[in-house]
Amino acid sequence: MDRDAVALVTGASRGIGAAISRRLAGLGARVLLVARHRERLESLATEICNAGGQAETISLDLTREEEIAALGEKVRQQYGRCDILVNNAGISKMGAPLHAMEPADWDELMATNLRAPYLMIRALAPLMIERGSGHIVNISSLAGHNPLRNGAAYSASKWALNGLTYSVAEELRDYGVRVSVIAPGSVNTSFGGHEPANAAARIQPEDIADVVALLVEQRPQSFVSEVLIRPARKP
């Protein structure tokens, strides 16, 4: 990978986002770590730099349009390029049927899981178009392919993210920008605020990071539209 390459990862402070950030830094990219939790970001950036990588922290609220627009301008002014965008940040809000869900919770979930990737693409895809290359990777879920009892809103956000990905891929492919989606099953993270059972049997965050590396290292004449990842055994 080009040592001047710039990669931006949302939800980078822990779990899948942290693993992806480490992997991209290991490939030689300067990684912009984006999340709300500044202390966690700073700790990860220190880890990456101590391992010989390059990382910068950016603390912001992905539900705020003006903050994402400012981020896009910062990347343009400071680096003049964005080679990789990984839209990883997401929230769940599962555990109750849809009719019992508060509209405010619905709005927050959709703002994070669907509107934020749109705003990030809006802010950064123009830089990729100008360079005639780039990779956008959206982290979805198998819940975007299957019904999810007591998780209808989450499932809907991921179905929508899949559709967004497929369509944006068609919009950007003629500019040399490749857009892919990764849909994992049960991952060993504390996503949703709960420590997972049978952690060793689950997909590991590093497994997702390996797939991101595969996508961005793909030779230029082709791209992978979607990767579904399941545990080898049901946890």
Automatic annotation (TrEMBL):
User: Is Oxidoreductase set as a keyword in this record?
Assistant: yes
Which Gene3D superfamilies does the record associate with it? NAD(P)-binding Rossmann-like Domain
Superkingdom, according to UniProt? Answer: Bacteria
GO MF, one example: oxidoreductase activity, acting on the CH-OH group of donors, NAD or NADP as acceptor
Matches recorded under Pfam families: adh_short (PF00106)
Q: Which UniProt keywords apply?
A: Oxidoreductase
UniProt-recorded name of the protein: SDR family oxidoreductase
Q: Species name for this entry?
A: Acidobacterium capsulatum
